[in-house]
Amino acid sequence: MNPTVFQLIEKKIDKRIRVVFDRDFGYEGILVAVSDDPPGIWLSNADAVTFRSTLAQPLPQIVSREDRSEVFINLNAVLRIEVLH
């Protein structure tokens, strides 16, 4: 049997992750919980981050951070999840 998305995300609990909603906005924080109804994740020590990219620098760079403490993120709105090292 293949693991579900929720099982794959649960393996990353207590890791620092970045959740991207669109090309300009996302959150960074420590993954503390995963729920399946509603499908979502909880982040602690979270920061709201804003990304910018230009023709000269096509890879998005973080240009601002704003402290958000704890955040629940519905997985239906997520573009991608990155594990930070």
What would your notes on this structure say?
It is a single chain. With 85 residues, the chain is mainly β. 7% of the residues lie in helices and 60% in strands. It has a five-stranded antiparallel β-sheet with strand order 4-3-2-1-5. A hairpin with a 2-residue loop joins β1 and β2. The longest helix has 6 residues. The radius of gyration is 13 Å and the shape is globular. The model has no long low-confidence stretch (mean pLDDT 91).
List the main descriptive attributes of the protein structure presented here.
85 residues; mainly beta; five-stranded antiparallel sheet; 1 helix; 7% helix; 60% strand; globular
**Shape category:** globular
What is the terminal-to-terminal distance?
Answer: 29 Å
Spatial ordering of strands, largest sheet: 4-3-2-1-5
* Helix-and-strand structural type: mainly beta
Strand content: over 45%
